[in-house]
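Title: Request for sanity check on Lipopolysaccharide biosynthesis protein prediction

Description:
We are preparing a figure and want to confirm that the structure record we downloaded matches what your pipeline produces today. Could someone re-run it with the sequence below and paste the raw structure tokens into this thread? We only need the token string, no images.
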Amino acid sequence: MSTTSAWTSVPHDPPSQRDWATRARYAPSDFITLLWRERFLMLGIFLVIASVGIAFSMTLKKNYTAESSLFVRLGQEYVYEPRAGDAGRGAVPDVDQVIQSEAEILGSGELRERVIRKLGFAEVFPSQATKYAAATPEGKRKLISLGRDSIAKHLKIETAPDNSIIRLSYQNEAPDRAEKVLNTLLEEYLTYRRRLLIGGDDRVLQRQKDIFEQKLQETDTSYQSFLTTNDIGDFSAQKATLTQLQTQVEQQKYSIEAQLQDRTARLAAVESELARTPAETVLYRDADTTAAAKLNQLKLDREGLLSRYRSDASPVRDIDAQIAQLEKGMAAGRTSGEGARRSGPNPIWQTLQTSRNDLIAEVAALRVSEATAGQQVADVNQRLLRLAELEPQFNQLSRDRDVLSSNVRDFTVKEQQDEAQRRMSSESSDNIRIVQRAVAPSQGKSLQKPILALTILFAAFTAACAGLVRMFLRPGLQTPASAARTLNLPVLASAGYKP
């Protein structure tokens, strides 16, 4: 190699002007020549960085990943059941919301801590078993907290939209430990989610029911005191009875008034007729039957004469003349006369007098009945008015009592349903199915090769950068071609390179 730095330097020029005049210009071919000159520096840097990267990659161990999956669908615990009322009853989330909720439960720190406590800290983290055994209670809590974070770092939970499958994977240095931790996580998840979603022995409904029962007892006491104070057995029945009795009494009163008017009118008519009727009258009169008897006797005598004489005989004609004359007299009424006659009390007057007495008695009785019915109507109306005054208070007590009874009944039903739901949910999780349990992986993965490749690339890049920096920091013009381009002058000769 040769240099022209001695020929191109102008010592008497100012420094700034000299630096500007000798600023080197390089071509791609110059870089290869100049970098080859720095090959020992670049090789040293490359070897140092590569050695450190290789040493670090050799310390990395293989990690084994255990995998499992869950099938999640909508369950009873996601159906909204209001504590009170029916607003929103039966509302359910969509499948994606359910999946995200279950994924959050799977990734919760409480669940990871339950796994550590069930398996034991030494089983999950054998490298820190001695430290954990010698630690104080506060130190153990800190180690468990760090263990929760470590599990979270190696636990992977994957979900996809419109997909009911949740995929889980756990990475550990030991395949058996990875399998055990992931399967324990699934078992604890099934138990923890039931306690979280369904709840344990939740006594909220019981306490609320006890409150309503106490209020109901107080209301019942007030209700019974109200009935006793006002001498009421059954308010509704008594009101209905009084209403019905009022109708009956009023109908009876109207009937009595109608009867009284009828009897009064009949009494007036009877008294008027009685005033025109005589007290005495002819009871019977005997009739005079002498002419009729004589006529009959003459007819009998004529029949007797006909048995001895002919019809034109003189005796027969004489008797026929007598009979004709008698009949003529009877027809003219000359033969009738008054017989015996008898007088006495008039029966019609007596009947009218009896009717009058009966009607007077009936009118008097009806007047008494009318007064009694009027008093009964007044009493029934008074009692109804009293019940009407008490009805608002009774309705308030009855309404409170009915509402509290309904609340106690509803909360009793809800409490039993909630208890049954907790029992059924604690025994099974039908909406969560383990599609695949974790098994110990047979092949592990390591970052040795990727780290080796990255280390070599980084070492080569660093060495090249160091060579370029060293090349640009050398003074003067390093090659004849660079000197010719920089000074825009031909280079006629060059001396050999000497360090």
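Thanks, this matches our download. The chain has three domains: 2-60+443-496, 65-197, 244-382.
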